[in-house]
Amino acid sequence: MIEYITTRILENSKGEAKGKVRILKLKEEKNAKIEFKCPECEYEGKWEEKWEEPFVQGSGINQKFMVKCKNCNFSVKISKLKKEIKKKSA
What we know:
This protein is mostly beta strands. It contains one helix and seven strands; from the N terminus they run βββββββα.
């Protein structure tokens, strides 16, 4: 069963949408599967991260996920969509 899944377009430091990330976490597994295209250096890779700090930060609606490029160390914090929708409507 799926515990968490998301696909997002990522912006580089200039605000250009050049990358993307996909995160998949199954309930029966301890790791999340990451597919990543860095918006900064355009590196593409797939790997797994343990479903714990520092990858997972916080809990519930405030939960964020820290994804860091394996090539240039550009880091992105991904908020849950519910949190982003609340920010935009406020």
